[in-house]
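in:
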């Protein structure tokens, strides 16, 4: 067996364990919390009072305009200087959540704004409150439009979690770095890590395509019925 293949097979369990314990949970939690933050931020931008709108605009401006790696360093290494100490995983989770929230807020704001005003009027005409109209009419329509850009954001997040290695989160890329430190084979290990990220991204892209196809079919069914 070639040396490079043997090394890959020996290190594969270590990388997969790190992916399952840290990379996958960090991705799922960050996206879920970030999506919630983005939804709240988008609603405030569209319907909130001016002072809150200004705060949200400033938040989005900061987190979309600065590198994610710098944000992680500020949270993990910078906050202790003002007395706020965070472990690596919570620091990474906060950083990714705030970053994803800023980007998803713009996506959600755009898709909510794309829903025709007639849908609001129709909801109000049958006695719905603003909250009911948003929950039952607007968000379901906006959600179908938002799936492609949100899915792309999720796939990008899977790859971006490798940046958490810079603040000592023992996720998959840092696991590869640790193996490199003992084997002195950076090319083989980093190619293996890249291949694993590629597999995860490819699987998610295939699932995204199937979901979009199903949603388009469902949307066409509803249009035909109407």
């Amino acid at each position: 067996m070639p040396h490079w293949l043997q090394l890959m097979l020996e290190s594969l369990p270590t990388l997969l364990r790190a992916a399952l314990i840290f990379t996958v949970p960090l991705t799922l939690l960050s996206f879920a919390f970030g999506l919630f933050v983005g939804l709240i931020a988008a609603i405030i931008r569209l319907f909130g009072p001016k002072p809150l709108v200004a705060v949200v605009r400033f938040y989005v401006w900061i987190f979309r305009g600065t590198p994610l790696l710098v944000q992680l360093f500020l949270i993990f290494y910078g906050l202790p200087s003002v007395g706020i100490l965070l472990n690596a995983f919570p620091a990474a989770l906060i950083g990714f959540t705030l970053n994803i929230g800023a980007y998803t807020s713009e996506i959600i704001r755009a898709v909510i704004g794309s829903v025709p005003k007639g849908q609001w009027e129709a909801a109000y005409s049958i006695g719905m409150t603003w909250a009911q109209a948003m929950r039952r009419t607007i968000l379901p329509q906006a959600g179908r439009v938002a799936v492609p850009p949100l899915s792309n954001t999720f796939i990008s997040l899977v790859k971006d979690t490798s940046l958490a290695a810079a603040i000592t989160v023992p996720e998959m890329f840092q696991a590869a770095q640790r193996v490199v430190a003992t084997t002195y084979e950076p090319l083989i290990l980093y190619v293996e890590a890249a291949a694993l990220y590629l597999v995860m991204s490819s699987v998610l892209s295939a699932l995204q395509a199937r979901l979009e196809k199903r949603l388009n079919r469902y949307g066409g069914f509803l249009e035909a019925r109407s």
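note: The radius of gyration is 21 Å.
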